[in-house]
Amino acid sequence: MFALIDCNNFYASCERVFRPELNHQPIVVLSNNDGCVIARSNEAKALGIPMGAPAFEYQKCFRQHQVHVFSANFALYGDMSRRVMNILEEYSPESEIYSIDEIFLNLSGMDAYNLHEYGISMREKVWKWTGIPTSIGIAHTKTLAKVANRIAKKFPDPTKNVHLILSNEQRIKALKWIDIQDIWGIGKQHAHRLKTIGIHKGYDFTQLSAEWIRKNMGVVGLRLQQELLGTPTLAIEYPKPRKNIATTRSFETLYTDIDAVKERISAFAVSCAEKLRKQHTCCLSITIFICTPQHQTHLPQYSRSIHIKLPYPTHSAIELSQFATQALLKIFKPGYAYKKAGVIVHNLINENQLQKKLFENRNEQHIPLMQAIDKINQMIGQQKVRLASQDLKQVWKMKQEKLSPRYTTRLEDIITIYC
DNA sequence: TCTGGGGTCCTAGGACCC
DNA sequence: TCTGGGGTCCTAGGACCC
Fold this sequence. Notes:
With 419 residues, the protein is of the alpha+beta class. 39% of the residues lie in helices and 20% in strands. The strands form three sheets. A five-stranded mixed beta sheet has the order 5-6-1-7-8. A four-stranded antiparallel beta sheet has the order 9-12-10-11, covered by helices on one side. A hairpin with a 6-residue loop joins strand 2 and strand 3. Helix 4 runs antiparallel to helix 5 (115-130) and helix 12 (258-278) packs antiparallel against helix 13. The relative contact order is 0.11. The chain binds a DNA duplex (18 and 18 nucleotides) through helix 9, helix 11 and strand 9.
């Protein structure tokens, strides 16, 4: 038995916790650079603002309906998420944090409990302790728990935001209700293909032949069908070290100068190196990419990436920055206006598993140096110690015009209460 | 004239998720 | 003027092995 607890409109709800006057008001949260809408309160959804809407196209709508607009405040959302998850993990010996706002709990063996009541108590505690509203789905498989969660969110009234799919009748009723594209694991492509052969609801999908699914959707599709039929094929998963780590950003303006792009690539490589050290891994290869703005079709378009194998595994910011900027020289073409770039590291291995001879070419002094840098930056603030190839004058700045305070992670931003 | 039958590893691309 | 930033897994095909 699985429960899926999902925070309602998570980013918007986080902003609301510290601004209760915004309850029942439309709220949207924008992506980095204030580019597009990545979260909406129910009121904003009701205004017809779609997910991913470009902010500039909706300025008029925002003004007209007095929508409260926020720049993404990931420091706040990450910390609020940690608080919510800490509470929910107490409700089961086995859990899986699936995303920043979702957690699966294994409820096997808890049949003695009234699971509906159990879910309501979780919801109430999270609400009371953090101010974040949640919805809860409970069923025999993770995919059905996802379906149940959707029902809980859609029909808060009878369900009290907690819905269970236990009997076969409940399962069939739920699957006859849910649209095929809303099922976890069915994306745009598969939904389109399924609709062309007359499959519109979750239930229709469970009636398809295994041969058809295997042929058109692979083993993933077969597993999904089993899940919807009530046979679990997905278990609770434990956190594993990442297999790839990326740092990519859009620029606030267009860059034509190679030095400006070089500085960004260097900074992204430093960021990847930091993330590598945090999970105690080194990378063996690196990809960098640059591209011009895809939406501005009147500009000359150019987009390229390059993948290089490193001569030895590393998590040194100095080395990764050098490899990344060397790679940039191979793909950078003058005469284009660049909008976005990124660094991705792959083939990650544990830092303790390095073979001795692999160290031959690398500078061993980087290891204590990086440790010292990490320590200083942790003590006195991120990015206080940087490479000379990074933006020392701090020219680069992300567009974040509507950033809320970091209420829970910065002493200066803690709210003041007058009594 | 006629040329087997297994494997593994790597990569790019496609699908999906939040 | 202006459109985010992360991840995962699977598959097919090519290169290589004996």
